[in-house]
Amino acid sequence: MAWTYLFFAGLFEVGWAIGLKYTEGFSRLMPTVFTALSMLVSVILLGLALKTLPVGTGYAVWTGIGTVGTALLGIWLLGEPATAARLGCIALIVCGIIGLKLAA
Predict the structure, then answer these.
(1) Which one, 12, 27, 81, 100, has the greatest CB density within 10 A?
(2) Residue 73 confidence (pLDDT) above 90
């Protein structure tokens, strides 16, 4: 169950990271509310996952999911560049997440 919590914590991290862009410096109410709620849910789920997972593994996987998801959505939603080097680095992060899962 801890890995499920961690996976969803990472998805909510993506939600708040992308949400920050849409708050326009916290000047827009609904994106700000969505972002704050996503932050709260993400941290709560991370805390639940860390009850049984090692903190280093859990935190690294959480930030990895957030990093990969945010980078991919930045490319897809925000028109950020999808260079070979950038996609290669994202793939390396995915390999690290998989490695941490297999090593846990």
Answers:
(1) 12
(2) yes
